């Protein structure tokens, strides 16, 4: 077995696919360079990301897949599932080995895996678009902290850019330590080292607009007022709003009773 080590980028993975064919590598598994210490046995092939090689693989996939099929690969890369790179590789190999489009071949394990992973990302994107709760700082910046299961920040930025085009905002992914920042003109990605804890809570309290707690309380009261106790269906509620999202939802903070 050969471990293909790459830098963790999508272009790096594409380069790895190119070199698997270039060097005729067999029985491969992908791994990020940061985790390479765990691979002590077997052959190792280190990939240096190459835009030309990556571009050739991407072009080949574009010729053989629909826009939806290509999205499956990209979104699988964002899924953060175990060994998602290997699922992508098996799918890409099936694409290149088949004379016709393989997207309807759901009996193939690789096709099913990437479609399932892409659907997972799609669900997470919709949830993040619905569950982001902004807070206001003293300098007029609206910020939100999220911890999505999938890396969906770049997929939701257009939604928030169009919906909140008249205000500066920052959405921070606490799991992946980066965010997207809108400055009233464009969206940029920013790297931040943010840690939850008492010290951080104090800093947030200090920078928050003095009216922010009032706004949050009004939102909690509104949410409670539109909730009909007799029609509560906690099982359905948890299905649409799993508990893992509650820590960053204003209406789920202590005092709302929901």
Automatic annotation (TrEMBL):
<dbReference type="InterPro" id="IPR025404">
    <property type="entry name" value="DUF4130"/>
</dbReference>
<dbReference type="Pfam" id="PF13566">
    <property type="entry name" value="DUF4130"/>
</dbReference>
<protein>
    <submittedName>
        <fullName>TIGR03915 family putative DNA repair protein</fullName>
    </submittedName>
</protein>
<feature type="domain" description="DUF4130">
    <location>
        <begin position="84"/>
        <end position="251"/>
    </location>
</feature>
<dbReference type="InterPro" id="IPR023875">
    <property type="entry name" value="DNA_repair_put"/>
</dbReference>
């Amino acid at each position: 077995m050969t471990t293909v080590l790459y830098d963790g980028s999508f272009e790096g993975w594409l380069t790895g696919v190119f070199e698997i064919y270039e060097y005729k590598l067999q029985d491969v598994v992908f791994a990020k360079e940061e985790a390479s210490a765990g691979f002590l046995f077997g052959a190792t092939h280190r990939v240096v990301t190459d835009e030309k090689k990556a571009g050739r693989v991407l072009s080949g996939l574009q010729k053989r897949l629909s826009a939806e099929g290509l999205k499956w690969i990209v979104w699988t890369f964002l899924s953060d599932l175990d060994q998602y790179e290997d699922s992508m590789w098996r799918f890409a190999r099936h694409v290149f080995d088949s004379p016709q489009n393989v997207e309807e071949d759901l009996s193939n394990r690789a096709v099913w895996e990437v479609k399932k992973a892409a659907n997972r990302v799609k669900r997470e994107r919709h949830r993040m678009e619905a569950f982001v709760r902004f807070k206001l700082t003293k300098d007029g910046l609206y910020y939100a902290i999220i911890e999505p299961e999938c890396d969906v920040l770049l997929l939701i930025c257009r939604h928030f850019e169009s919906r909140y085009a008249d205000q500066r905002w920052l959405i921070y992914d606490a799991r992946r330590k980066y965010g997207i920042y809108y400055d009233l003109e464009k969206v940029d990605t920013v790297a931040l080292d943010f840690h939850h804890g008492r010290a951080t809570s104090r800093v947030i309290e200090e920078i928050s607009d003095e009216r922010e707690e009032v706004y949050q309380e009004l939102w909690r009261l509104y949410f409670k007022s539109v909730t009909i106790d007799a029609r509560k269906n906690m099982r359905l509620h948890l299905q649409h709003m799993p508990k893992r999202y509650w820590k960053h939802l204003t209406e789920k903070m202590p005092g709302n009773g929901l």
